[in-house]
Write a structure and sequence with these properties.
mainly alpha, disordered C terminus
Length: about 220
């Protein structure tokens, strides 16, 4: 259990304490498990529990490497989550081909798009999102779905904050342009808005140990 003192500390102080072997990591798990589980549940729902456990394992292992100058802990954790998810997708792509290392990718938008509730995203919005460059789309979804600030999203993606803001502005402009066309009656378009976070499954109980798996089920059935 996280102590009252730990609950009163900010994320950076908790991670610093964990790096020194003075506890603190469990409190971080409690604070961020639900948000990270939602990130996975919206992108790889059947593997979400295992991917979340892998994030905590990797984050705990790399706790000494955290650099506050590169962004807040929340952004760092989402960066770890993104790397874990990309590795998961690459692994699935390799398994489906039976040829490790060839043509692996980390942005299977079609698989994610197919999981989205049609009522949550208008067809035109789905189309515009699918046409965005991967980084711009991920920036938009991290801000809209995961409620990260543009600076936090930049940290998660490992790009400068200024670059993130300009790319986010460009992505939003594309959405506004599509909405304007729809309002003008352009055929085949229904007015899209910036996506809001779709409903995700309830987050499981946070693991009490960073090395403990939260689920014994392996995501071998996930489709890339």
């Amino acid at each position: 259990m996280a102590t009252e003192v730990e609950n009163g500390q900010d994320d950076a102080a908790l991670l610093t304490a964990a790096a020194r072997g003075s506890g603190g990591f469990e409190a971080l798990v409690g604070r961020h498990a639900a948000a990270l589980h939602g990130y996975f549940a919206r992108r790889a729902p059947r593997a979400a529990d295992d991917l979340l456990a892998e994030v905590w394992l990797q984050a705990y292992t790399a706790r000494h490497a955290y650099d506050p100058a590169r962004g807040p802990v929340r952004a760092w954790l989402f960066g770890v989550a993104r790397n874990v998810l990309s590795a998961h997708w690459r692994r699935l792509a390799q398994e489906s081909r039976g040829a490790p290392g060839e043509g692996a990718h980390g942005d299977p938008w079609e698989a994610v798009d197919n999981r989205l509730d049609a009522s949550a995203l208008a067809p035109a919005l789905r189309r515009v999102l699918s046409e965005l460059p991967e980084v711009e789309r991920e920036l938009l979804l991290l801000v809209a779905w995961e409620q990260l600030s543009p600076t936090e999203a930049a940290g998660a993606l490992g790009i400068p904050a200024g670059t993130a803001r300009s790319r986010l502005h460009r992505a939003r402009a594309r959405l506004r342009e599509s909405a304007a066309l729809a309002s003008a009656g352009a055929p085949g378009l229904s007015g899209p808005t910036v996506p809001t976070s779709p409903t995700s499954p309830t987050s499981p109980t946070s693991p009490t140990s960073p090395t403990g798996r939260s689920s014994s089920e392996h995501p071998t059935g996930e489709q890339a």
